[in-house]
Amino acid sequence: MHEMSIAQGIIDLCLEHAGGRRVTSLDVEIGELSSVVPEAIEFCFEACSRETLLEGARLNIIRVSGTGQCRECGRETPLTELYGSCGHCGSHRVAIVAGEELRVREIEVDD
Ligand SMILES: [Zn+2]
Questions:
Q1: Nearest CA to 62 among 17, 10, 9, 109?
Q2: How distant, in Å, are the alpha carbons of 66, 79, 93 from that of 73?
Q3: From ligand 1's centre to the CA of 75, what distance in Å?
Q4: Are residues 104 and 14 in contact, defined by beta-carbon separation less than 8 angstroms?
Q5: How far away, in angstroms, is 24 Cα from ligand 1 center?
Q6: How close is the Cα of 103 to the center of ligand 1, in Å?
Q7: Residues with Cβ within 5 Å of ion ligand 1?
Q8: How far, in Å, from the CA of 13 to the mean position of ligand 1?
Q9: What string of pLDDT tens digits covers the 111 residues of the chain?
């Protein structure tokens, strides 16, 4: 399962940064254009974090909306899908500038 390995990756990263301390909460950014389903991450996180220093940690998922920059008219346009078109001129030559994120933004540890 895709989300299972992502959740495991998030946990590994947090453990590395926590340096043996208990993690109480973490903020994870998930872009709306990524194929990751937040609910699945929550579920997998809970399962994978059991009996680790992340057990019981609060997982805050921050959704990052999709934004593209049009290569035709040069303006920024909101994107709701990966290959969306420019909302200003209708061009499909849109470069994605936000919305593909999948990263741990912040963790809180117990001192
Ligand atoms: Zn455009």
A1: 10
A2: 18, 15, 10
A3: 6
A4: yes
A5: 44
A6: 29
A7: 70, 72-73, 86, 88-89, 91
A8: 38
A9: 589 999 999 999 999 999 999 999 999 999 999 989 999 999 999 999 999 999 999 999 999 999 999 999 999 999 999 889 999 999 999 999 999 999 999 999 998
pTM higher than 0.85: yes
2-109: CATH topology: hypothetical protein PF0899 fold (3.30.2320)
Which residues neighbour 50 within 8 Å (Cβ) at sequence distance 6 or greater? none
* Cα 51 to ligand 1 centre (Å): 50
Domain residue limits, the chain = 2-109
